[in-house]
Specification:
This is Amidohydrolase. Keywords: Hydrolase. It holds the Pfam family Peptidase_M20. InterPro entries: Amidohydrolase (IPR017439), Bact_exopeptidase_dim_dom (IPR036264), Peptidase_M20 (IPR002933), Peptidase_M20_dimer (IPR011650). The chain is an alpha/beta fold. It folds into two domains: about 280 residues, 3-Layer(aba) Sandwich (Aminopeptidase); about 110 residues, Alpha-Beta Plaits (2-Layer Sandwich). The protein contains twelve helices and 16 strands. Strands 1-2-4-3-5-16-6-15 form an eight-stranded mixed β-sheet, sandwiched between helices. It has a four-stranded antiparallel β-sheet with strand order 10-12-8-13, with helices on one face. Helix 3 runs antiparallel to helix 12. The longest helix is centred in the last third of the chain and has 21 residues. It is elongated, with a radius of gyration of 24 Å.
């Protein structure tokens, strides 16, 4: 493994930043303290900072000193999950019911470390755009930033990002050209019934029976409508109806998600959900409404950027630690909206430990320097010059730390 000593000197500060962010997590579009912390640190590095992008997003621009060249974006997500932390680190969440259970605190610390490195090493062509994105967990933050004019205000040619992967051992890098992670669509289905006494069902319309049929019928989309060589998941994760054992309710509500690795399969699955609901609606002489929310396309990595990431990974962790065609994941990530707008690559950084979203999950601070080294190696390749390894070794001064606490 090759990580320069100068990048290694950032490890202790990245650990401290990460622990601060972890202790004060904030959920989607409420990342005000996190955004202030990030912006204050970036300003202390002497770089250009813009806040309030897509509500709570932060964008930083670092200009190279060697003239015109490409503009490369690097992205990290900032939000936490609405769940309780059961682990007992000394920096555990101080907020009940909010927890950095997916490692976004680690992603932010890696991008901050990269920003500090680049601020001290601006000997490159072009520009680097650093994107600190809100609301990834509800897959709405990237679109909010795009809707707020991200591409027009801060244009870039390519974009790169990473996500920690507990399923990979530390020091492993995984990536895949093409579809690497699934689209993510959430839906709510409301079955309208006619309430009546449970002993006289013929006087009403039972939405529970219709809903139960719907749960089974939706599974035929995957088994009978989708090409067996394609990957699609349809899951009903919540089914609520009724409040008493002797009352047929007036409504049943089903919540679920659709995941697919291609746009065509995604469209087919959504179309068939509508067809099945319409058929049951007609068969039962009732009304079934479908509402979609929090949607994002599949992550599609472009060939050129993937080759760049693989080359960087060979340099940083060694060829034997690189999985160049990792199996696709049916979990989504709304970096997909950025990758749909511009070519780029989202790669996986092995860290071991508990799986993301486990109540005892914790980001592995030891892999943060690998993340910085990967981003720096990608930039070295894409910006066409050797980025000098001159980052200052000293830590952020205590005054800066005090102003960035939240």
């Amino acid at each position: 493994m090759h990580i320069s000593p100068r990048i290694q000197t950032l490890a202790s500060d990245m650990r401290a930043w990460r622990h601060m962010i972890h202790s004060k997590p904030e959920i989607a579009f409420r990342e005000h303290g996190t955004a202030e912390f990030v912006a204050a640190l970036l300003r202390s590095f002497g770089v250009e900072v813009h806040t309030g992008i897509g509500q709570t997003g932060v964008v930083s621009i670092i200009h190279g000193r060697l003239g015109d060249g490409p503009t490369i974006a690097l992205r990290a997500d900032m939000d936490a999950l609405p769940m309780n932390e059961q682990g007992r680190p000394v920096y555990r969440s101080v907020f009940e019911g909010v927890f950095h259970g997916c490692g976004h605190d680690g992603h932010v610390s890696i991008l901050l470390g990269t920003a500090r490195y680049l601020a001290a090493n601006p000997l490159f062509r072009g520009k680097v755009v650093l994107i600190f994105q809100p609301a990834e967990e509800i897959v709405r933050g990237s679109q909010a930033m795009l809707d707020d004019g991200l591409l027009e205000r801060f244009p870039f040619d390519e974009i790169y990002s990473l996500h920690n992967d507990p399923m990979l051992p530390p020091h492993k890098i995984g990536v895949r050209a093409g579809a690497q992670q699934a689209s993510s669509d959430f839906f709510t289905i409301r079955v309208k019934g006619v309430g009546t006494h449970a002993g006289m069902p013929h006087l009403g319309v039972d939405p529970i029976t219709i809903g139960a049929t719907l749960v089974s019928s939706l599974q035929t989309i995957v088994s009978r409508s989708v090409n067996p060589l394609e990957s699609v998941v349809i899951t009903i994760a919540r089914f609520h109806a009724g409040d008493a054992p002797n009352v047929i309710p007036h409504e049943a509500v089903l919540d679920g998600t659709v995941r697919a690795l291609s746009a065509a399969s995604r469209e087919l699955a959504i179309e068939r959900i509508h067809d099945i609901c319409k058929g049951l609606e007609l068969a039962n002489r009732t009304q079934i409404d479908i509402e979609y929310s929090n949607s994002t396309p599949p992550i599609i990595n472009s060939d050129g950027p993937v080759k760049c990431v693989i080359s960087a990974a060979h340099e940083v962790v060694g060829k034997h630690n690189v999985i160049e065609s990792i199996a696709p994941l049916m979990a989504g990530d709304d970096v997909a909206n950025f990758l749909e707008a511009r070519p780029g690559c989202h790669f996986l950084l092995g860290q071991g430990g508990r799986m993301c979203h486990h109540p005892e999950y914790d980001f592995n601070d030891d892999v943060a320097p690998i993340g910085v080294a990967m981003f720096v190696a990608v930039l070295r390749s894409r910006l066409g010059v050797e980025i000098e390894d001159q980052v200052a070794a000293e830590s952020v001064d205590e005054g800066a730390r005090e102003t960035t606490g939240f």
